[in-house]
Design a protein that fits this description.
The protein has 165 residues and is of the alpha+beta class. It has a single domain, classed as 3-Layer(aba) Sandwich (Aminopeptidase), CATH 3.40.630. Helix content is 35%, strand content 32%. Strands 1-2-3-4-5-7-6 form a 7-stranded mixed sheet, sandwiched between helices. α1 runs antiparallel to α2. This is N-acetyltransferase domain-containing protein.
């Protein structure tokens, strides 16, 4: 029997390591990303959590049997000017395709609306079709795309925005 899923708000111990591990594993397996990407996730996530402010930032983790199996973060540091930044959205293979991603995206977007953020944005890349469908269902639209290497491997980077206000 599978343990019940819990969505927890806020930082929990082990989050930096586990969220970085989920990203590193998935993107290496499916996209060939390597050390540069995993280190970037760990570094930027650590920096975010050190300045985390529950009044403007949101973090949600999906746990099962006490283990982090997914995450999503809304970084509100520039919400007043650029909009909230949706970051570090990931699910383990165990949760993918079970509606958990939709639940996490809905929580993040509800947070933005509750904070009266006028827009949200994110960076993704071509080929992450399931995630893109969730983003579009939440109101995001593709604004621009370009070839780039911000994650250490050349991909067709996509910038998406959602108007909330």
């Amino acid at each position: 029997m599978t343990a019940p899923l819990e969505i927890k708000k806020g930082y929990i111990p082990g989050a930096i390591g586990r969220i970085s591990e989920l990203h590193g594993d998935y993107y290496h397996k499916h996209w060939g990303f390597g050390l540069f990407f995993e280190a970037k996730v760990a570094t930027e996530l650590s920096e975010f959590l050190q300045r985390y402010d529950a009044e403007k930032d949101g973090i949600w983790v999906a746990t099962q049997d006490g283990r982090i199996e997914g995450s999503i973060i809304m970084d509100g540091i520039h919400a007043g000017t650029d909009g909230a930044h949706l970051r570090w959205f990931i699910l383990s293979d165990a949760l993918r395709g079970k509606g958990v991603g939709r639940m996490l995206v809905e929580k993040a977007m509800a947070f933005c609306r509750n904070k009266n953020y006028r827009k949200a944005h994110l960076w993704t890349f071509e080929g992450l079709d399931a995630a893109r469908r969730l983003y579009e269902e939440a109101g995001f639209r593709l604004v621009r795309q370009k070839r780039g290497i911000q994650w250490g491997t050349e991909v067709n980077e996509q910038y998406m925005e959602a108007d909330l206000g």
